[in-house]
Amino acid sequence: MAQRRDRWQDIRTGLVEASGRAVAALEQLAGGMSTAALALSAAFLVLITLMLCVVGIGFLMVPTVLGIVHSVAGRERARLTRWGEPVLGPAEPVVKLAAVLRDPTTRRELLWLPVHGVFGLALGFFGVLLPVLAFRDATFPLWYPFIPPEYATASIGVWTVHGGLQVFVVFMMGVGWTAILLGLSPGIARLQGWPGRRLLAPPPGTDLSGRIAELTSSRAAALDAHATELRRIERSLHDGTQNRMVAVTMLLGAARRALARENADPAVVDQVLAQAQDAAEDALKELRGVVRSILPPVIEDRGLAGALSGLAANCAVPTTLDVAVPGRCAASVEATAYFVVAEALTNVARHSGAASAAVRLRRRQKRLIIEIEDDGHGGADESAGSGLVGLRRRVGAHDGTVTLSSPAGGPTMLKVELPCGS
């Protein structure tokens, strides 16, 4: 009996694990189907551009079309990296026609487009259709008596079902579809991703040491930024909120002792309680400030443009804001952009002596461009404790870049680029 129970337990565990793998495979296939549709569209766009090159118009379209190709390939690299070994892309995608002829990465991406567009779309459609077929045929005996005879067919629809034996055959087909779903869907997902791993990976012999060193440095910067943020939060809580709460506790203790006296003065007790209430309100205000500094809720409520408009309006230096960012970026990217603008405007107000400032945000392909300019006296120095070191570290944690131009006499231009997806 115990052996039989253990055997059934093993079977249940195996089914649960197979179901989990099947669900993950279906998610991969659905994602691959979406990138395949994009790849097929991009392949048609490339073909149209080549035909238009005959009359000369296509040459003007080449940079834009190549940008679309790189964007679609980048989405597939990100998808493959999510589900397996990382697939690294080029640091600087090529968009000029002359450089394309010498760039093996772009040639491989152009070859990948029709391969993934056709086979990836077909495999993705079949994989997504599998659970529908399995559910339809496995449940066929339940709803067969309630449908018109001419509609009583199996999922592949090659014959009309008549009688109990054929109903059982359709049910067994559902069992077969289920077995294929549980057993083969992970392999179908791997087959769908094979062209991308073969063609979108760096060509053989490519020196990846620079890119690996860059990613290692970015990871180290992310860890440093995380540790710095934790220390800042801990310091804010320790030096501010904790001290306020200690004061509240002491004041409440004093009020309690005053009430315990026989000749307690209500006015004194009321004054102590009022002080305790003020201290509690100050502690709550500081705690809210710490929470807002982690991820400002105004970004979620009003979006990045609305949040930045509040920063520009509250800046001591008159600031103009120009935001042209369609859609939303990742929450961490928007929070970092908010931090960059807040830190930069704080520096402008404290150190620049500027009469005006300007903040501009643009989204170009897969990067968010932030520019903060002021007409102050310039001479900004990262080593002078202006917060630029922490800003650069936080941006570096997102694999972004910081460029500072601040000659003596001004103006000062801070340019930050953050990857924000396609």
Average pLDDT over all residues: 78
Major β-sheet profile: 5 strands, mixed
Question: Distance between the terminal alpha carbons, to the nearest Å?
Answer: 58 Å
Number of strands: 5
Radius of gyration: 31 Å
Question: What form results from the Cα inertia axes?
Answer: flat
Measured by DSSP, the beta-strand proportion falls in 5-15%
Helix content: 55-70%
Low-confidence stretches: none
Strands of the largest sheet, in order across it? 1-2-3-5-4
> Helix and strand string, N-terminal first?
HHHHHHHHHEHEEHEE
Q: Strand pairing plus helix content: what structural class?
A: alpha+beta
Instruction: Please tally the helical runs, counting DSSP H or I stretches of 4 or more residues.
Output: 11
How would you describe the overall organization of this protein?
The chain is of the alpha+beta class. Helices cover 68% and strands 8% of the residues. The protein is built from 11 helices and 5 strands. It has helices at 2-53, 58-82, 97-100, 104-138, 140-143, 164-199, 209-260, 266-294, 297-314, 331-352, 388-396, and strands at residues 319-324, 357-364, 367-374, 401-405, 412-419. A 5-stranded mixed sheet has the order 1-2-3-5-4, covered by helices on one side. Strand 2 and strand 3 (367-374) form a beta hairpin. Helix 4 packs antiparallel against helix 6. It is flat and about 95 Å long. The two termini are 58 Å apart. The model has no long low-confidence stretch (mean pLDDT 78).
